[in-house]
Amino acid sequence: MIVCLAANPSIDRLFEVERLVAGGIHRPLGFVQVAGGKGLNAARAARRLGGDVRVAAILRGHAGRWLEETLQADGIGGAFVWTHGENRSSLSVADRGGGDLTEFYEHGPVAPEAAWAELMEAASGLFRPGSWLTISGSMPRGLSDRGYHDLVREARAAGMRVALDAEGEPLRFAVDAHPEIVKLNASEASGLLGEPVVEREDALAASAKLRSLAGGEGHAGIVTRGADGVAVAAPDGARYEGVLYERGRYPVGSGDAFLGGLVVGLERGDRWPDALRLALGAAAANAELPGAGALDAARADELRARAEIREP
After folding, report:
1. CATH number, domain with residue 21
2. What is the pTM of this model?
């Protein structure tokens, strides 16, 4: 089973316009909305790839009810903690003419400390030894930066395997609790390590440092670079580079789909190179369809077969 934590979920909306003009009036050519935020994107991708997925999330108000109903329609259940206010919204505007994507992300309202304690309890009720927990995305405002650290420790004590994808101080604290996987994009890795992660060699070095920070032997560090592929320091010390020469118009959520694909592969017992191929296929398939995590599983499998994994 895969448990996906979503401490700060959102309703993610995508508008497509012919051309985005600052100060202009636009009539969208296409529109889609999904239950989003990084944790729910990863959950949806993993579910579409055949994973047995549960979600632990903080929900609020009318938006929260819509999120819950949408997850249920996708066949995703779990444990939900309800608190005051409304869940946030995020907006992406795709410019068909220029191929650009403009994004707007709300912070969301402040959450009470009691909500985090309830979420920890709700998540732990889903834990099963040997299963995976993904922790991804931001912490709600008002909560301690040590929240993810405490959750990683509790999950590992329960025999869970943990994959972490966060940023800022919550990431810095959580890494000290030694999750099995630390998966970051180049910008997040740069912020944690305090050094630029731009070129291929930077990403390879950063993945090794992430593995070391996470605990070394038995842990993995991963740096994703969008269309430029991924650098990996695997639990057994092996090093990998992965690339898939496919480009989609909707990259929002591709990193989350990568994480979902990776844990699905590992959960079913795939070797690391094979799990990475599935992760790359999921990320590329995600970018071909509007709506983060709304990938087509058959297409992801087709793309998986084209992914190149090599040892640098």
Report:
1. 3.40.1190.20
2. 0.96
